[in-house]
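Predict both folds.
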Amino acid sequence: MQKPTFVYDGDCSFCTSCAQFIERRIPSHATVVPWQFADLDRLGLTLEQVEEAVQWVGPDGTVASGPDAIALLLRDAGRFWEVPGRALQFKPVGLLAWPAYRWVAGHRHLLPGGTAACSLPQAQR
């Protein structure tokens, strides 16, 4: 694998809106792809991982989830994006980031761009 890959839930409109923002505004080298169209085996990811949180797979095979994945995406973008990326990796911020991420993930159907499908488990979509 040459480039990092950022994997998100393409069935969720909120997640897709966030991914589109990333592609338009954050100059990461990563391929941004919905897990439904990703080769999970090649990336070394499981269905459980991608259903639980966004994933970052580095060129070296390093895998990070949730806010840790977002931090690596931001750091990869460089320039001023590296600052919030490093902040997310700062231990006290990271301890708060996971509960915040889980809250957003659990309420994404209520957020801008979210739809009722965002609240359903994958098996029911």
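Second protein follows, with its predicted structure tokens after the sequence.
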Amino acid sequence: MSQSLCPVPADQRPINEYRDLKASWFFEWSSWPRPRFQRRLLLLWGMAWFVSGPVAIASFSLKEAPFHTFLAAALGANVLLLLILLRLVLGWAYVGDRLQRPTVVYEETGWYDGQEWQKPEPELAQDRLIYTYELRPILQRLQVTLLALVIFSLGLALGWALL
């Protein structure tokens, strides 16, 4: 966005919000190539087991109900991973929405003085291209992953109910 014509503070401009999100340590890995992204998900799921596993073992007798213990730990790990994925989806979706909108809502000095700025056509076209070719594939991957994890969690819950 043009520095001289755009009244929106630099940190509230959608293109800069996108760049900041893409460069942040938490959000950047969702834009990595698929195998690396999947390894990160497995690592996070494994780390979540360090929390959910001991809780499941303390909640159920490992000797008397090993399947319940395993399913409880897996569901606990899934919940933690679901929360992480949900945060990623919401963060990317927020910035994606701001990139696609023809106007930018911003605050000049605080929460009480909201303003709205109409993007010029070239800037709107640029923002929408960034959304279409860079951000939307990330968002779609995250949504599919989130859906797969929800289905997996439902399968674990069904397994629990059938035991």
